[in-house]
């Protein structure tokens, strides 16, 4: 699978547009619907798509739960899907998206090579950006307390202790620890950052070991500096904690960086700075993701072509130039700014791409279900990891991944 090798290293909201205006070069006459996440980059892309007319864009943070059934319907309920490394996999396995080679040959001359996501020799997705969780910190607080920007988790915990002693914010640390995807990714980031391997050669799980225990214990150390309600905390929760001046540091998605300087909702404009994700024992404790579009299989060829052209208009240079700070774009016209520094540094320091695969999808679900029991103190580290491995084995066998 080609996953942007060169690029990786360097609530619901909806709107309907019925007319064509602004700078869209394609006058769309066929109704097109898209379903994607709701962060700022997708708002920018779908806003540009809407300029072509007859576009309905659904922005929903629960998109990953809705897409499989919506694309399996006949006809599909959406023509365009917004996906990432991991959310591409279930659609690909279910054969509910179509290869894009013919459409690219006809309309995609301006696409960069590293935007083309290939699996088994065919192109299935068009990437628009890369994303990563990385350190965001209150530069004023760290400067006032004489704290250097943490580059390791040992330094992060030491910094959190100093912030706690100074009592200048409610919580020194924030984190995306909500059960399910959020805390699952937290474990994945830390486990890879500490050099862990998730599977044995036969795809049986390999997390119940010293590295797995060390990661859970690290979560326990971080918890003492966090909101007691940490298990309700997702990306929006952490974003709002920063904006309201409640936290000093957190690893948060790069796509949330622009919100820190949104004068309409942030009290800390200009004070939150982006840095590389802290290192584990071997590399940054983060994973690199791409986001992009897919086209449904269960629609007419005419709809697919219209949807593809609308999507390209949403991902053009004009959109990027108007939204430079919103994402780390892979599109012509992008010049990295201050808010992209954390993602760029995380990639440059050696963070790995998220290891998307069918077995990793099962593992992520099992982690998201199992890790909270350790955070609440209901289970110790060894029991938590053993139970996660047991759930993974059951689900992997049910899905035919292992015997």
Summed up:
The chain is α/β, with parallel strands linked by helices and 403 residues long.
The share of residues in helices is: 40-55%
* Biggest beta sheet attributes: 12 strands, mixed
Task: Output the CATH class name of the largest domain.
Answer: Alpha Beta
Number of spatially distinct domains: 2
Low-confidence stretches are 1-22
Query: Strand tally, please?
Result: 12
Which structural class should the secondary elements be placed in? alpha/beta
CATH topology of the largest domain: D-Maltodextrin-Binding Protein, domain 2
Instruction: Tell me the Rg in angstroms.
Output: 21 Å
Blueprint of the fold:
Blueprint: H1 5-9, E1 12-17, E2 32-36, H2 40-50, E3 55-60, H3 63-72, E4 80-84, H4 85-94, H5 101-107, E5 116-119, E6 122-138, H6 139-144, H7 153-166, E7 171-174, H8 181-193, H9 210-223, H10 235-243, E8 247-253, E9 272-275, E10 287-295, H11 301-314, H12 317-322, E11 328-329, H13 341-348, E12 352-353, H14 358-375, H15 381-398
Parallel strand pairs: 2-3, 2-4, 7-8, 10-12
Antiparallel strand pairs: 1-3, 4-10, 5-6, 6-8, 6-9, 6-10, 6-11
